[in-house]
């Protein structure tokens, strides 16, 4: 059984994230949203929630995995263990 953490940022890289998740064949996926607030009532916040809803559905459909959780901050995941972290900000190269 594999548990993955999918990190969603404000950058629109959802197709790359989905492709990597699909390739890894996870059983369970937890989603961390970085760089945005799910409680934001502005147009930006609503767009993030709409994007997230579509992404959660796509994760379950394309991978067969169960999305078991949603976090808005890394502190909420303190003590959790994942087999792999997918997505997030890419490291800078020299």
Walk me through what this model shows.
By secondary structure, the protein is of the alpha/beta class. It has one domain (3-87). Helix content is 34%, strand content 23%. It contains 2 helices and 4 strands. The chain has helices at 14-24, 43-63, and strands spanning 3-8, 28-33, 66-71, 84-87. A 4-stranded parallel β-sheet has the order 3-2-1-4, with helices on one face. Helix 1 (14-24) packs parallel to helix 2 (43-63). The protein is globular.
How would you spell out the order of helices and strands? EHEHEE
User: Which class of secondary structure composition applies to the elements?
Assistant: alpha/beta
Oligomer: single chain
> Count of helices?
2
Unreliable parts: none
Overall form: globular
Radius of gyration: 13 Å
Q: Average the pLDDT over all residues and give the rounded result.
A: 86
Query: Can you tell me the number of structural domains?
Result: 1
Largest sheet: 4 strands, parallel
Beta-strand content bin: 15-25%
Protein traits:
four-stranded parallel β-sheet; 23% strand; alpha/beta; 94 residues
Indicate the topology.
Elements (H helix, E strand, L loop, with lengths): L2 E6 L5 H11 L3 E6 L9 H21 L2 E6 L12 E4 L7
Parallel strand pairs: 1-2, 1-4, 2-3
Helix pairs in contact: 1-2
Task: Provide a compact summary of the structure.
The chain has two helices and four strands. It is of the alpha/beta class. The radius of gyration is 13 Å and the shape is globular.
């Amino acid at each position: 059984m594999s548990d993955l953490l999918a990190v969603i940022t404000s950058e629109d890289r959802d197709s790359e994230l989905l492709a990597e998740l699909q390739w890894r064949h996870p059983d369970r996926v937890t989603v961390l949203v970085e760089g945005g607030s799910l409680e934001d009532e502005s147009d930006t916040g609503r767009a993030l929630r709409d994007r997230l809803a579509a992404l959660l559905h796509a994760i379950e459909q394309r991978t067969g995995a169960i999305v078991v959780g949603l976090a808005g901050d890394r502190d909420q995941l303190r003590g959790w263990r994942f087999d792999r972290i997918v997505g997030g900000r890419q490291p800078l190269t020299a």
